[in-house]
Fold:
Amino acid sequence: MSSTSAAAPTVNPSLAHQADLYLDTHHESFVRLGDRLFDEFRPSGGQISSQVRSLQQVATSATRFVDVEDFVKNQMGRGRASSKAWLNIGEETLAQLDSLRTVQAGLPSGPRGQAAPPEMQLQFRLRLVRGWVRAVVSQYLYRAATQDLEQDRG
Amino acid sequence: VVNLDVLADTEFRDQAVRALDEFIQAHGCPVRRAQIQGLRQIAFNQPREVPDFADHQRKKAERRLEGLNPNSDRAARLTDEIAFWDLIVHLSGSANTPAGRWSLYRLAEDQAPADCRVGKRPHGSASPEEHRAYREARQKSDTWHKQRVAEDYPAFFQRFCAHYLYRLSKHEAGDGGDDL
Structure:
């Protein structure tokens, strides 16, 4: 008569490898999203945008993949100035999250094509979304650093 | 044992998105942001009050509808709003929810451990043991449902409200995708 929450976000090494392979294969599209994030949420006064920081924070600490999707939907739906930028970039962000969601983790050392149990799938999705946000925010930070350098030279 | 994180990440998310996409296709987005914030707060702080809150909102909309020209835009919007609060009541569900219709109550029933399931009320002539067993099962079932409401409603309506706000913002931007 009880419920549980996800335990520590550890992923079986085989699933971690599957996730890393996926992230590596799709890195280019994550970089493109990082560029678009930079265009919409420019750093100001040497500070990165609080929106980008929040996205990173949510993706890193979430115990449910859907928390990241909900963060984007909530930001898009706020009806304030900050949501305009999210309206420009939110669909692409949600589309990438949707792609991550549909990646099925295979059962480690099980028969080919057999899906892992739901708890493992959740940990797999969390691993994916953390890798995803790392790639996206890294590109954002790279663009921010490049901009700073150009400004210093200018 | 229910894994709430898995449930919130899969079934709650999918059912909330499905229910709202179907609703918005038929009725648009008749409820304001502030009302959704109210629903979200109630679901978090007093989850058991969600059906009553929805019923109260529904009655308010019905009162405002009285005396309006039924062909007016305002009457149409209020009719859609009434349908929205009906949806909340249906998604919450009750013992009277028709079989086959998804609701949080039905899901809790399906997931109830064997000792939390209530069979038929014993006949008056049944033995005292049968009556006692029935009362105990009833009590366990009530406790189970209270616990599920306390845990499931915040998790479900968080998904539901986020998706509504997202669809509302697209609707306002003229990119409603009401024909999804």
Remarks:
- Chain B touches chain A at residues 1-6, 8-10, 12-13, 33, 113, 116, 140, 143-144, 147, 151, 158-159, 162-170, 172-173 (CB under 8 Å).
